[in-house]
Amino acid sequence: MTTTQLRAQLDEVFNARERTNMAPTITVLLGLLELHPDDAEVLYEVGGAYDTDGQEALAAEYYQRAIDAGLSGKWLRQCFLQFGSTLRNLERFEESLALFDAGLARYPGSESLAIFRVLTLHAMGKTDSALGTLIELLTDRLDTAEIRRYEVALRGNAEYLKSLDS
Questions:
Q1: Residue 46: how many CA atoms within 13 Å on its side-chain side?
Q2: Rounded CA gap, 130 and 159, in Å?
């Protein structure tokens, strides 16, 4: 099976999944994993299926294996987000934050990674940093006359808020 064919099959399984009953999806994905035990995208999709099923500890293992197997492109960006979120849900906050930071270093334009990083800061009790980071993100991404007018003040407030959690 070619990489393109495998990806098409993974997409088909993903699109057919039923979020309220992930067992059939997990079964199919584990079958594909038996055939392709070192394939990074298969490992990632297995992790995602376990994550959707609420089995976050198992999901984390597969996400890490996918990264270690060389996951790349949009799948790696998505894995950073899902893995970081899973670690947050497992209350492994420092690991979550480190993963989001690594993801943002690699994909600096990813608003979704930045927003989920804010959720980790909030879960860590760093609510001032979370709000400051969110204000920065909005200031960076919203190009409106009002934002431009108050950009210096917004950035100053964001820095101040972030300093409160230091």
A1: 26
A2: 11
